[in-house]
From TrEMBL:
Keyword Signal included in the entry's annotation: yes
Keyword Lipid metabolism among record annotations: no
Organism: Streptomyces cinnamoneus (Streptoverticillium cinnamoneum)
Alphabetical UniProt keywords: Signal
SH3b domain ranges (all copies): 28-98
Alphabetical list of InterPro entries matching this protein: SH3-like_bac-type
Leader sequence segment: 1-27
Protein name stated in the entry: SH3b domain-containing protein
Length: 105
């Protein structure tokens, strides 16, 4: 009986792992920077802990990975194509280029 229980448990773990591994990831959305000099930050916020990684300029291409709210303000995690940096921008300074839903961070 002990071997049977182990076998069943091993099968359940394998099935659960497979289900988690094959779950579709939320899609990122193409976007653009809408304001010159937009700061791409290491975290969502304007505190000194959120250092500036790069500057974005009007029309720069980004991939919008997820969004969040900090202190009641919208922030979007983006990959900035020109600089190659990934960080957060204030949500009002970026817009979607294509339809789609940006997942929550």
């Amino acid at each position: 009986m002990r071997g049977t229980v182990r076998g069943v448990l091993a099968g359940l773990v394998a099935a659960t792992t497979l289900a988690v591994a094959t779950a579709p990831a939320a899609a990122a959305v193409a976007g653009r920077i809408s304001v010159d000099g937009t700061r791409i930050r290491s975290c969502a916020g304007t505190s000194s802990a959120c250092r500036v990684l790069a500057l974005g300029y009007f029309g720069d291409s980004v991939t919008m990975k997820c969004d969040t709210t900090v202190g009641g303000l919208p922030w979007v995690k983006v990959h900035h194509h020109r600089s190659g940096k990934t960080g957060f921008v204030y949500g009002e300074y970026v817009y979607q280029d294509a339809s789609g839903s940006i997942p929550r961070c």
